[in-house]
Amino acid sequence: MPLGDPAHGPELQEQLSPSPEAVAQSAQPESRLRSLNPGPIPITAAPTSRSLLDKVSDQRDVIASHQSENGTISTVSSTVSSVESERATYEFLAQTPIKSTDAHLVEFSEAMRTVAKALRQVAEGKAAAQAEAAEWKRKYELETAQKQQSKMKDCGSCTDDNLEKLARQITLETPASDQTACCGNHEICSHEVLRDEVPGSSRRSSHKMVGRKASFKLSWGCNGNKNGQHKHDFVSFEKGDITTAERSNKQILLKWESQPQTVLFITKPNSNSVRVLCAEMVRWLKENKNINVLVEPWVSKELLTQDTDRNLVQTWDNDEETKMLHTKVDLVVTLGGDGTVLWAASLFKGPVPPVVAFAMGSLGFMTPFPSEQYRDCLDNVLKGPFSITLRNRLQCHVIRDAAKDELETEEPILVLNEVTIDRGISSYLTYLECYCDSSFVTCVQGDGLIISTTSGSTAYSLAAGGSMVHPQVPGILFTPICPHSLSFRPLILPEYVTLRIQVPYNSRGHAWASFDGKDRKQLAPGDALICSISPWPVPTACLVDSTTDFLRSIHEGLHWNLRKTQGPLDGSA
Ligand SMILES: NC(=O)c1ccc[n+]([C@@H]2O[C@H](COP(=O)([O-])OP(=O)(O)OC[C@H]3O[C@@H](n4cnc5c(N)ncnc54)[C@H](O)[C@@H]3O)[C@@H](O)[C@H]2O)c1
Ligand SMILES: Nc1ncnc2c1ncn2[C@@H]1O[C@H](COP(=O)(O)OP(=O)(O)OP(=O)(O)O)[C@@H](O)[C@H]1O
């Protein structure tokens, strides 16, 4: 039967894609050759045909072994195998003596050419697949290398050990026990949390996230120093996203760790009711609480008119002692209005003891305690704990002729409400250049400018069109007074900025600065005022808590948004 006969089809097919049994059979090449060449083939051809079949079967063994390891590599091996099989076929044809008279041999050589052609087509198809696979492999390796490089750049402070961990992470081999390790202990690194499990997802998918999302870190403090590390509780990471965590300014409670012993009384002058109440409270504190009472020098002379009362109190007589008040005083009691609270705060150029403000004025925005209930109020405060509002103050420096010598500064002045720069008695427009840190803010042309704390937002700033701001909000208000411009809206800036207000040389007149409505200072062209939040806030005791007291003040003190309620549409009310 001729080899080209369709009856030989399965055999030829088997030669190209042998079954496992056939591959095993190729270990006996002679019997295999006999089945291919039933005719009289010269015995000399046998070794060559055996080498062809051995090569084919050897290559198939390589394919089988690589397929179990890696699909890409097995594709490459099978392509090599096809090419070599074709070459072996041609070698075989060249070496086999073919006689023109032997029709079987002619047919056989034709069949072998067909085999060679088939093998070439297979090889060409697989070469394209091989090229494509190689290209994907190259891209994958390039991407992996780039990711590794950027990870290592992000993690400048990593030790060698940590670099190894990182490399393991990139190659998806991070041991499960090492999930919380970070490159450094001093900063928050987002990839630290990116390695956390996403709830409900598999470990493998969480690793995929590491690959996609770039890592970053947050730090606090001026110009990269670590002073602000304690602020970590403001912001935290959750699965690599920034989220505000614990609020720093929850309601603050003051709890005494030892019994308070000394109370300073600050009283509004020229008020008979204040004088009477002051004497009564001093006696009560002495007799019932055994408290030392301190009063201002003028109070011991003018207010406590009876000798018995005067003997109950202590005072001081020079400025040096005033500076040391905060070291002796446990609690400050004020009797008056907001002006008395401002006055009390102004006595402390540094730390301020807690202030209990009794309302004996007309408005009393910062004076929540009812004076008629002073016994209960003082009882509660002296026992503690009680809520306080930490009221920020502004520290203000006047710099004379700033452009010539910035070192010639005056003592800083602390304000609880605001510093105002206005035109004073001048009839010219105030002209002020304003800077926030190193950025230019604007030029003020009008009656002036108010730089206010949030506590002061309900005072002069409110009258000039500024917003009312809860006193615990960390900010600085920038409110113009009668600006001669249609678009000068008030601003609220973050608490950490430093403001510089400068009277330019080409200003037509002088400006005037006043501090909580007092201590006016003239600012000549070239002078500047520098303001920033002071590190010494005023802790004022709350009647209820910070927010309740604030809202009560704007409702009862300012009658905020008071309006008759509309009746229903049917007109029945
Ligand atoms: N046009 C205005 O509204 C205007 C003008 C000048 C001064 N002031 C404010 O007066 C303050 C000085 O107060 P004073 O009692 O010594 O002077 P003052 O006796 O002239 O009283 C000013 C008024 O402002 C009220 N006040 C003070 N601080 C307040 C605050 N934080 N919130 C709400 N109201 C407040 C006082 O209760 C008082 O009714 C300045 O710090 C300034 O804010 C307001
Ligand atoms: N101990 C003090 N020594 C000197 N001056 C004081 C003292 N206490 C208060 N003052 C000043 O007295 C003025 C009036 O005080 P305060 O504002 O407390 O009372 P008020 O005007 O009756 O109250 P309100 O402002 O609520 O109407 C303010 O200018 C304040 O600075």
Polypeptide structure, described:
The structure is a single chain. With 573 residues, the protein is α+β, with helices and mostly antiparallel strands. It has four domains: 6-132, no CATH class; 160-244, no CATH class; 254-390, 3-Layer(aba) Sandwich (Rossmann fold); 394-536, Sandwich (Tumour Suppressor Smad4). 39% of the residues lie in helices and 21% in strands. It contains 18 helices and 24 strands. The strands form five sheets. Strands 13, 14, 15, 16, 17, 18, 19, 20, 21, 22 and 23 form an eleven-stranded antiparallel β-sheet that branches. Strands 8-7-6-9-10-11 form a six-stranded parallel β-sheet, with helices on both faces. The longest helix has 52 residues, at 103-154. The termini are far apart. The model is unreliable at 1-83, 155-186, 193-206 and 228-234 (pLDDT under 50). Adenosine-5'-triphosphate (ATP) binds next to strand 6 and helix 15.
**Number of helices in the DSSP assignment:** 18
Strand content: 15-25%
Under CATH at level 1, the class of the largest domain stands as Mainly Beta
CATH architecture of the largest domain: Sandwich
Bound small molecules, deduplicated: nicotinamide-adenine-dinucleotide, adenosine-5'-triphosphate
**Main beta sheet, described?**
11 strands, antiparallel
Alpha carbon gap, first and last residue: 116 Å
From the helix content, strand content and strand pairing, which structural class follows? alpha+beta
Helix content: 25-40%
Q: Please tally the β strands and state the result.
A: 24
Tally of structural domains: 4
The coarse silhouette is: elongated
Q: Which stretches of 5+ consecutive residues score pLDDT under 50?
A: 1-83, 155-186, 193-206, 228-234
CATH superfamily of the largest domain, please?
Answer: Probable inorganic polyphosphate/atp-NAD kinase, domain 2
CATH fold label of the largest domain: Tumour Suppressor Smad4
Task: Supply Rg.
Answer: 46 Å
The whole-number mean of residue pLDDT values reads 74
